[in-house]
Design goal:
Length: 192
């Protein structure tokens, strides 16, 4: 298995492993994340749970296999350096087209509003643009995640539209807002 180790000031990113599953179960099944898709490309169907997705250990192991077995998909756990605690995860997928990446970020609820997303997201976008041929990075945001939409705009992403009724969660069809940023746009505002 390929290992990753990328670092920012307070965080490091590394491959998620089986020993993190108890924490992932706690976070991924929390009420705060009941409408959030952990990853657009590895969704677990709702099944018998009409208001949320309920993950179990085997679901997470299946997601790990999908993440690990793709040569064009990268997933990282986000860990604090000081406490060595997992606080979220970030993934990117370029299996559809290497010039267009889908970026997914999830900071777990108790770690939000501490500046972690502002630290890790620009770092990861730089990493993608500096190491891949990518020209476009897209993010897809649930209609209720207004803070995430504001954050995407803060980073320079621009709204490209809405996918209506993309997912069924919490007893209703949910819209997804699409944002993207092009390599020249990022470089013009975030030169490294």
């Amino acid at each position: 298995m390929e290992m990753y180790s990328l670092e920012t000031n307070r965080l490091y990113l590394n491959r998620l492993a089986e020993e993190q599953i108890p924490k992932l179960l706690e976070y991924w099944n929390s009420p705060e994340l009941r409408y959030i898709t952990i990853d657009r490309n590895t969704m677990i169907p709702e099944g018998n749970h009409p208001y949320t997705v309920i993950y179990n250990k085997n679901d997470i192991l299946d997601i790990f296999k999908i993440w690990d077995n793709s040569s064009k998909y990268r997933s990282f756990g986000i860990f604090t350096k000081k406490e060595n605690e997992i606080i979220g995860h970030i993934t990117y997928d370029y299996s559809w087209d290497p010039f267009s990446i889908i970026l997914n970020l999830l900071i777990y609820p108790k770690y939000r509003n501490q500046g972690y997303a502002k630290e890790v997201t620009p770092f990861m976008i730089d990493e993608i643009f500096n190491t891949l041929v990518t020209h476009n990075i897209a993010v897809f945001i649930d209609e209720d995640e207004t803070n995430a939409m504001k954050f995407a705009e803060y980073l320079g992403f621009k709204s490209t539209g809405v996918i209506k009724h993309e997912f069924y969660r919490g007893g209703k069809l949910r819209n997804t807002h699409c944002y993207d940023i092009l390599r020249p746009e990022w470089r013009n505002t975030h030169a490294t």
